[in-house]
């Protein structure tokens, strides 16, 4: 897929996708293996409607793709390198943040 987005716009889309904990959980689950929406909803403990909204966001961000499988649709990461990028990002964030505490969103100086 060819896009005219700049590198900054692409990173912003990735950040927007990661800004929600449920979308993070979806990406981590899909890093492990492709999955059908019903299975993802059950795994994450959320409704299919709520999951559908998050999958639409991840598709719009270009991070996941829907693959038709018969009468069902399976979701997977758009590129296997995204799984490696998620692993690297998680390792880097954990390494940097081991001595820091992120305050709740209601408190001042929140990292969100």
Question: What does this molecule look like?
Answer:
This protein starts with 6 loop residues before the first helix and ends in a 15-residue tail after the last helix. The protein has 112 residues and is mainly alpha-helical. The longest helix has 18 residues, at 80-97. It has one domain: Winged helix-like DNA-binding domain superfamily/Winged helix DNA-binding domain (Arc Repressor Mutant, subunit A). The protein has a two-stranded antiparallel sheet. The model is unreliable at 107-112 (pLDDT under 50). The chain contains five helices and two strands. It is globular. Residues 3-97 form the HTH arsR-type domain. One of its GO terms (biological process) is response to lead ion. InterPro entries: ArsR-like_HTH (IPR011991), HTH_ArsR_DNA-bd_dom (IPR001845), HTH_Metal-responsive_Reg (IPR052543), WH-like_DNA-bd_sf (IPR036388), WH_DNA-bd_sf (IPR036390).
TL;DR of this structure?
This is Transcriptional regulator. With 112 residues, the protein is mainly α.
Give the tags.
Arc Repressor Mutant, subunit A, mainly alpha, 2 strands, 112 residues, lead ion binding, DNA-binding transcription factor activity, 11% strand
- CATH topology value: Arc Repressor Mutant, subunit A
Summarize the biggest pleated sheet: 2 strands, antiparallel
Task: Please state the oligomeric state of the protein chains shown.
Answer: single chain
Low-pLDDT residue spans: 107-112
Beta-strand content bin: 5-15%
Order of helices and strands: HHHHEEH
Radius of gyration: 15 Å
Got a strand count? 2
Widest beta sheet: strand line-up = 1-2
> What is the distance, rounded to the nearest whole angstrom, between the alpha carbons of the first and last residues?
31 Å
Helix count from the secondary structure assignment: 5
Name given to the CATH architecture: Orthogonal Bundle
Overall SS class = mainly alpha
Domains, number: 1
- Average pLDDT works out at 86
Helix content estimate: 55-70%
GO molecular function, one term: DNA-binding transcription factor activity
Domain HTH arsR-type: 3-97
InterPro entries: ArsR-like_HTH (IPR011991), HTH_ArsR_DNA-bd_dom (IPR001845), HTH_Metal-responsive_Reg (IPR052543), WH-like_DNA-bd_sf (IPR036388), WH_DNA-bd_sf (IPR036390)
Pfam family, one: HTH_5
